[in-house]
């Protein structure tokens, strides 16, 4: 019982330490925890900022759902024109407000950036702007993923319960 007790406590400590808090400094030098709903609301305002998206055709702009509706024929126009730069400005705006922002398709900022890099590269992925499919094709690559912390946390929790279950029969015999 003592061994499983230690494993469970270790897992709880790891989970608590990996849980992000959104804090900012207030005028008195103390920390103030921001409401996640307010952060998301502020981040969504980036989409309507007229200084960010000023030249990119509206149909090619990144949407709140996490989609880039860029047809293959418009790849050169998108990648070599203002759209790519303005999309990065939008992502910077969102990231500066709420770095853990997730689009409606569950893509993180890093997933969008990775899709842009691949779609504008000189590789076989050029012109491939489908973020959701890009995420699915990269699902088994943990390194660099937005959800790396979540994957690690779930694995630790699973291993904790697994080892706890394995230890129970040993504890009964001791």
Automatic annotation (TrEMBL):
Pfam families xrefs: DUF7731
Domain DUF7731, residue spans: 36-135
Assigned keywords, A-Z: Signal
Origin: domain of life: Eukaryota
Residues making up the signal peptide according to the UniProt record: 1-25
Protein name, UniProt field: DUF7731 domain-containing protein
Matching InterPro entries: DUF7731
């Amino acid at each position: 019982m003592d061994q499983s007790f230690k494993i469970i406590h270790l897992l709880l400590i790891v989970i608590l330490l990996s849980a992000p808090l959104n804090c900012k400094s207030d005028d008195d030098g103390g920390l103030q925890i921001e409401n996640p709903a307010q952060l998301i609301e502020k981040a969504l305002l980036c989409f309507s900022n007229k200084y960010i998206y000023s030249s990119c055709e509206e149909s090619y702009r990144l949407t709140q759902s996490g989609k880039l509706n860029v047809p293959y024929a418009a790849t050169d126009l998108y990648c070599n024109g203002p759209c790519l730069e303005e999309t990065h400005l939008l992502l910077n705006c969102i990231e500066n407000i709420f770095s853990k922002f997730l689009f409606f398709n569950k893509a993180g900022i890093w997933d969008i950036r990775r899709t842009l890099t691949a779609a504008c590269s000189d590789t076989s992925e050029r012109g491939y702007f489908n973020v959701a499919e890009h995420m699915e094709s990269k699902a088994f690559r943990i390194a660099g993923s937005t959800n790396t912390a979540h994957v690690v946390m779930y694995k630790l929790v699973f291993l904790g319960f697994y080892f706890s279950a394995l230890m129970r029969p040993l504890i009964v015999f001791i």
